[in-house]
Amino acid sequence: MLLKLSFELNILLLELTDHVFLELDFFNHLHERGVGLARFLAELIALLLDLRGILHHLLQVLLVGCELFLDLLLLVL
Fold this sequence. Notes:
The chain is mainly alpha-helical. The protein has one helix spanning about 1-75. The N and C termini lie far apart (about 110 Å). The model has no long low-confidence stretch (mean pLDDT about 80).
């Protein structure tokens, strides 16, 4: 009887450790995905900030070009 009880307890402990390892593996997977998502968002924000700077510079160049074009029109007229 004691042997049977210890055998069942051993099986229950093995099932428990399997369950714990599965949960730890799941949490590890979520952590890896979370880190991947955070890295992706950081790269996206950096890209958007770079685009903002490029667009700002482009608009300044267009503004100066328009100003020079208007000055040229005033000289011609």
